[in-house]
Specification:
336 residues, alpha/beta, Rossmann fold, 43% helix
């Protein structure tokens, strides 16, 4: 079976490619010209140059494909709103239209837990939780919600479209790295003397990739599936990271108000340097929520695996160290 993966050179996408190759699929990856293809080295795949915003390149890439895994997205809380909208919403619209014209059997649309409702105190969100659009923070989250709505509409129109909502993946191959990966890198390099308490659902990126393939095989059209793992507070996450990395976990907890006061100067500095800030007002607002999610439906209906978090963290740490993102462990950084 031939499958197309948009964004197949990215963190999640490259693991989807590997999961498909392991199943014996004939895999084609849609990647922009001059894209970083390091995550695909050595894999028996075809690379089709193109862009999700370009209908002609999509048509060429989808030729002969039975399945499309639409993983490509601009994951940024700082990029211009127009670019985020064009890539995430416009790109999804173009992919769905091209798949319909090409007669593709199944589209798996990679959404995000960002498109789900925000949890109240003590709540765990699932696929049925209501979404209050007034609480959607920033252009990225808005774009993921709108692109997911396009996928639902396509399913209602007769296409077989299954939606997956990854939480916060960790593991090897996080080239950029993602926001969660940056937390790990800063931790390993001793650049995290304190932390802000928040909550997140953390999952092995390879389980997320497997969830994509299982969604194509077993998922119900028009339904969405949370591809998640374990819910942790930031303190719990850092404690587990310390245990597998040999580094000390920070003990100082910084109040949200203090971090909020630093967000605007961080944004101003980013405008001067042209580099994406580590801290924005949107990310501070989101950190006030414990973003806990339930993968129960995906486990029950798809058979989503649940790899132990320690395995994912240990592999992420080893990969970051081996690829020069983080310094190696030493006696001085071993946990007390």
């Amino acid at each position: 079976m031939r499958s197309l993966v948009t964004g197949g050179n990215g963190f999640i996408g490259s693991h989807v490619v590997r999961a498909l190759v392991e199943r014996g699929d004939d895999v084609r990856v849609l990647a922009r010209p001059r894209a970083d293809l390091r995550n695909l080295r050595g894999l028996p795949i075809e690379v089709a140059e193109g862009d999700v915003r370009d209908s002609d390149s999509l048509a060429r890439a989808m030729s002969g494909c039975a399945r499309v895994f639409h993983v490509a997205a601009l994951y940024s809380f700082w990029a211009p709103r127009e670019l985020v909208e064009a890539t995430n919403v416009g790109g999804t619209r173009s992919v769905l239209a091209a798949a319909a014209r090409a007669g593709v059997d199944t589209v798996v649309h990679t959404s995000s837990v960002a498109a789900l409702g925000l949890p109240g105190v003590g709540e765990v969100v699932d696929e049925t939780s209501p979404v209050d659009r007034r609480l959607i923070v920033g252009a990225y989250k808005e774009s993921k919600l709108r692109s997911e709505e396009l996928a639902v509409d396509a399913a209602r129109g007769g296409q077989r479209v299954v939606i997956v909502n990854p939480s916060f993946p960790v593991g090897p191959g996080d080239l950029k790295p993602t926001p969660t990966g940056r937390v790990i890198v800063d931790f390993l390099n001793g650049r995290m003397p304190a932390y802000v308490e928040t909550g997140m659902n953390v999952v092995d990126v390879r389980d997320v990739a497997e969830g994509h393939v299982l969604a194509a095989e077993r998922g119900r059209s028009g339904e969405r599936y949370v591809l998640g793992g374990v819910n942790l507070t930031m303190r719990e996450f850092l404690t587990r990271l310390a245990a597998v990395s040999g580094c000390r976990a920070p003990r100082l907890r910084v109040p949200h108000g203090v971090v909020a006061a630093l967000a605007r100067p961080s944004e101003l500095a980013a405008r001067l340097t042209g580099k994406e800030p580590r801290l924005t007002r949107d990310t501070v607002r989101m950190s006030r929520y414990r973003m806990f999610y339930s993968p129960a439906r995906a486990i029950r209906e798809l058979g989503l695996p649940q790899t132990a978090l320690e395995v994912a963290l240990a592999d992420a740490v080893a990969w970051f160290r081996a690829n020069g993102y983080a310094r190696a462990a030493s006696r001085r950084t071993s946990p007390e």
